[in-house]
Design brief:
Elements: E1 2-5, H1 7-10, H2 20-26, E2 32-36, H3 38-52, H4 58-71, E3 73-75, H5 81-91, H6 95-107, E4 110-113, H7 116-124, E5 129-131
Parallel strand pairs: 1-2, 1-4, 2-3, 4-5
Helix pairs in contact: 3-4, 5-6
Length: about 130
């Protein structure tokens, strides 16, 4: 089974926050983890804020971002952009969020997120979605 992981889940692999333990269990499961390559920018943005607020050393943030592709099958944004644009227009939400939903649809995979709105929109669009905590 394939799971499409969004940035809200991937960030929990590197920052200690509620749900981090459950997110980390995904790394040792049998599922294939996938994401649009947009995730690199989204996770990088969060890690950058953590560095600037002294919550995470720069070297660890850089190592985390460099290692992210080892955990995920990454799919090019260029292949998802048109579907994401159309889906966001039809079902709501941001084009960024809909990139994950579009990939879930394409792979016939479940989308895993901590973003309640993304999950709601995915379900509205007919894509299975769940929060990491259940």
């Amino acid at each position: 089974m394939t799971l499409v992981i969004d940035a809200s889940v991937a960030v929990q692999w590197f920052l200690d926050e509620p749900g981090s333990e459950a997110a980390s269990r995904l790394l040792t499961g049998r599922e294939v983890l996938a994401a649009p390559d947009l995730i690199l920018l989204e996770v990088g943005s969060v890690l950058g804020r953590a560095v600037r607020s002294d919550a995470l050393p720069f070297d660890l943030a850089q190592e985390a971002l460099d290692g992210l592709p080892r955990h995920l099958a990454l799919y090019p944004l260029v292949d998802l952009a048109q579907e994401a644009f159309a889906g966001a227009g039809r079902f709501g939400g941001s084009i960024y969020d809909f990139c994950y939903i579009a990939l879930g649809r394409r792979l016939k995979a479940k989308v895993v997120s901590n973003d309640k709105e993304l999950i709601k929109i995915a379900r509205k669009a007919g894509v299975e979605a769940m929060r990491i905590g259940g």
